[in-house]
Design goal:
The structure is a homodimer. By secondary structure, the first copy, chain A, is of the alpha+beta class. Chain A folds into 2 domains: 127 residues, Creatine Amidinohydrolase, Chain A, domain 1; 253 residues, Creatine Amidinohydrolase. Helices cover 32% and strands 18% of the residues of chain A. The first copy, chain A, has 9 helices and 17 strands. In chain A, the strands form 4 sheets. Chain A has a 6-stranded mixed β-sheet with strand order 4-3-2-1-5-6, sandwiched between helices. In chain A, strands 11-10-12-15-16 form a 5-stranded antiparallel β-sheet.
């Protein structure tokens, strides 16, 4: 039932979850959110993935979709899961992991009534923690995404025409993303984290706060208060392109800055500081490094250059300088002052020290990195200097 | 704080919610999900919209965004909402409406601990019911969307080139959607209802079941199991285009069929039956009509033509023939056999009697309708016959 190339990868993931379950005394983990299904089953289906602390998982499937295996049980509603347990002599879990930060309240309460466990724990927290350490297959997916991401970014200068708006520029980039294999859909974690394919921020729109918890904001349009807002691209303006690298299910994150004409020295300097911050982090980061230290180091370097007031925004400053990436754009770890996490081999994260320069726009870069046994490996490799469009 | 053109519309909505609250003895309604915020506040912000059963609402805002009004209270966390109530001598609600089908379990439990109400009720159910009856301003938004939707669909033949795939065809349509003002982001209600801008189904891919609860499926690509899958467009193939009408926050829904060369008579006939079903529903539907009857009538007509086995799919048949549209693509009412709803003036719904013809693809049409005082008004007006691309 599972594509052979994926089978080993899935088994590796199941083993990790089972180890974590045993360590905390959980007997069962029930998952039904798209990203967790994709992670654990290699596909999104309508239904539930149940993993006991020992043994093989069950796929409880609500819609016919070709799944067939002794571990696959077709159901119409979740109440039939425990019936299937009873028929097969499977013990109901006493300590059950449920996706408490992803299921709706009513979905969660329904599952609670069905399983009636003695104890519950948060599958969202566990899965997000485990998902932060990528498997070899996942790393391979990132490499495919990164390559296509680089290819699209190399085509960005060809998207520009004089007198266009930020939105028109973005439409051209979107088209090239799709032609290079982007799945389009951009997955993020959390309520009200809407984004469409990424963000293009031109000029002072980069300073406009957004309600969403992305690094920078932008006014957006209509009912999407993020990103491009119809700003006419003008001479002396920085255009920050932060469009998704969703060319596989695994998203690379990369930001580059383009300019109409030349930018003032203050903006160019801030851009160089962003590259210096990245270089410094590439030098010092390795397994064991505190994620908070990556933020603190970035902020200190920004302060030393007199740029702290425009670091990660002006009106609203994001309190992080990077974040894990994966099936969702905002996975663990978070590179934030209060982060308790430490880098570990095969974490994949985006580092995005950015500055907003009033009257110019946003500058800085973002790249996706894999944590190796001894340091960092940069996955996204497009040209990092400010690229002048005309 | 609110754009003047919207102020009357918002007050109308607040009054409706307050009337419903009084009718059920609720004293307060707390909303924080994007679509409910847009509906009640005219904008998505980071925070909470609180409406008491009597009096003006409060905006509890977590991020600076220019909102300023005596009803706006800046907070860092939801725990400060009840502090703000205490400071202002506002009574805590005894019966509180919370978005039980939208908030995550943990978000809901946190709010419950903060407010500690004697009783709760489901704000999701209430808001979805009220949102099904559109206001004059909302109808105007639909008209704008419909006009741009028509414009994009008229451009679809220019998207076709010989030897392209369904995905390549879709990319061209997406580009025109964006150029005509689509916001891109496609909002739907429910867990795991992922969709990117709409669906293009070519040939037998139309029969592939999807885990998601849309009218038809399609294999999709990678981690998006819906819609186009890279099918090469070939002679004799039907291509069903069901791309979003999200040109304002209010989404019109429209489907048209294009063909490569001529389609076999069986497919042409099924398409005509779809148009006949629509005509029959246009003749009989009016305020008071049971939504279930619209489904039953459609199914009866399909049966009479010997098409019930391919009505709304083959391998997997959707058990509805239409649905309300609004800020989300799947609002109330649902035109399904067990629907208890009846049409009412200013409901806006999509009617989509579709057939999947093996070896050909999907045929049929979909349009968005407003319920008037005496019948239906069709909002989406693109050519309804099968359009031959070459």
């Amino acid at each position: 039932m599972i594509k052979k190339m994926l089978a080993d990868d899935l088994r590796l993931k199941w083993n990790r979850v089972q180890q974590a379950m045993k360590a905390t005394g959980a007997d069962g983990c029930l998952l039904s959110i798209d990203v967790n299904l994709y992670y654990m089953a290699g596909r999104i289906f309508s239904g539930y993935f149940y993993l006991p602390a020992d043994g093989d998982p069950f796929f409880f499937v609500k819609r016919p979709n070709g799944l067939s295996d002794e571990q696959v049980v077709y159901i119409r509603k979740p109440e039939q899961i425990t019936d299937a347990f009873a028929e097969r002599g499977i013990k109901k879990p006493e300590k059950l992991l449920l996706e408490a930060d992803e299921l709706t309240y009513n979905e969660y309460m329904r599952l609670l009534a069905i399983f009636n466990p003695k104890e519950t724990a948060n599958a969202t927290t566990l899965m997000r923690t485990l998902r932060s350490i990528k498997t070899p297959w996942e790393i391979e997916q990132f490499r495919i995404s990164a390559k296509q991401h680089d290819k699209t970014y190399a085509e960005i200068p060809s998207c520009y025409r004089p007198d266009m708006t930020d939105l028109e520029f973005q439409y051209e980039i979107e088209k090239r993303m799709r032609q290079n294999g982007s799945i389009g859909l951009f997955r993020s974690f959390g309520t009200n984290m809407d984004i469409f394919m990424g963000s293009v921020l031109a000029g002072d729109n980069a300073a406009t706060p957004s309600p969403f918890d992305f690094a920078l904001g932008g006014e957006g349009v209509i009912s999407l208060p993020l990103g491009a807002n119809g700003t006419a691209l003008k001479n002396g303006m920085a255009i920050m392109v932060d469009m998704a690298g969703n060319y596989t299910a695994y998203i690379t994150d990369m930001t580059r800055v383009f300019s109409v004409g030349k930018l003032p020295e203050q903006a160019c300097k801030a851009h160089r500081v962003s590259i210096c911050i990245q270089q410094e982090i590439e030098r010092m980061a390795k397994p064991g490094t505190a994620c908070s230290e990556l933020y603190n180091l970035s902020l200190r370097m920004a302060e030393r250059e007199g740029l702290s007031a425009c670091f990660m925004g002006t009106e609203q400053q994001a309190k992080f300088v990077g974040h894990g990436v994966g099936i969702q754009i905002n996975e663990l770890p978070v590179l934030a002052p209060r982060s308790k996490e430490r880098l570990a081999p095969n974490m994949v994260f985006a580092l995005e020290p950015k500055f907003v320069i009033p009257g110019v726009g946003a500058v800085g870069i973002e790249n996706s990195f894999r944590v190796t046994e001894s340091g960092l490996e940069k996955l996204t490799l497009a040209e990092e200097n400010i690229i002048q469009l005309c």
